[in-house]
């Protein structure tokens, strides 16, 4: 069964850090580009970051550039999103998804999401 599972969300104070994980089962994560999305209440889904299958291309939304870092551990079949200097506006449900390329429209797999709340 093709599946992605996110973890690592939680409550953190402004300026704090969290590391989200996106673990794959049923397929090899390295064969796909992995995208992190987020959706805050009442807002549209926003692409946060993407790492290509070859790791040759990494993209970040302007809103997180310099604060978030995407990486992958092929041995663990897992992609990470390290989030530093968190702001209240980063509060959202974060999802990971697998696509053939970062710009492909079709998705191979989606996760169920993990909630990140940035609040004092």
Q: Helices and strands in order, then pairings?
A:
Blueprint: E1 3-7, E2 10-12, E3 18-25, E4 33-39, E5 46-51, E6 58-60, E7 68-73, E8 78-83, E9 92-99, E10 109-110, E11 114-118
Q: What is the SS-derived class?
A: mainly beta
Tally of separate helices = 0
Quote the average pLDDT.
Answer: 95
- Number of separate strands: 11
Radius of gyration: 13 Å
The percentage of residues in β strands lies in over 45%
Succession of helices and strands:
EEEEEEEEEEE
Helix content: under 10%
Tell me the span between the first and last alpha carbons: 40 Å
Major sheet, described briefly? 7 strands, mixed
Shape: globular
**What are the segments in which pLDDT stays under 50 over at least 5 consecutive residues?**
none
Structure characterization notes:
The structure is a single chain. This protein is mostly beta strands and 120 residues long. It is built from no helices and 11 strands. The strands form 2 sheets. Strands 2, 4, 5, 6, 9, 10 and 11 form a 7-stranded mixed sheet that branches. The protein has a 4-stranded antiparallel sheet with strand order 1-3-8-7, with no helix packed on it. It starts with a strand and ends with a strand.
Keywords:
seven-stranded mixed beta sheet; 0% helix; globular; 49% strand; mainly beta; 120 residues; single chain
Short description:
With 120 residues, the protein is an all-beta fold. Helices cover 0% and strands 49% of the residues. It starts with a strand and ends with a strand.
